[in-house]
Amino acid sequence: MSSKGQERAKQNDTPVMQQTHVNGNNHRDQNNNEDDYETRIRKTGCFRENENLQLCYADKHDWR
Fold first, then answer.
1. Does the pLDDT at position 21 exceed 70?
2. Confidence of residue 16 (pLDDT cuts 50, 70, 90)
3. What does the pLDDT read at residue 26?
4. Are the CB atoms for 36 and 27 separated by under 8 Å?
5. Is 25 or 33 the better-scoring residue by pLDDT?
């Protein structure tokens, strides 16, 4: 891996599923802070369930 690739890997330790929504948009701003959506979901106590639902929907295109 090139040194630039290693730098990116070090800077980007957050799992991919926490970086993108189902539609693929990055939901972290340039300061690497949580956006409002992620903050609200975390406050519900259902972050893991929501994350699993998003991953399932991305794979199967069916929320059920």
1. no
2. very low
3. 52
4. no
5. 33
Q: Which residue has the tokens 């979901």?
A: 41
**Residue position matching structure tokens 């609200």:** 40
Residue with tokens 């730098």: 7
Side-chain half-sphere CA neighbours of 1 within 13 A: 8
What are the boundaries of each domain within the chain? 15-60
More confident residue, 39 or 4: 39
CB 38 within 8 A of CB 30: no
Give whole-number Cα distances, 53 to 14, 34, 57, in Å.
Answer: 19, 19, 6
- Amino acid symbol at 29: D
- Cα gap 6→55, rounded to integer Å: 27
Rounded to whole angstroms, the Cα distance separating 42 from 31 reads 19
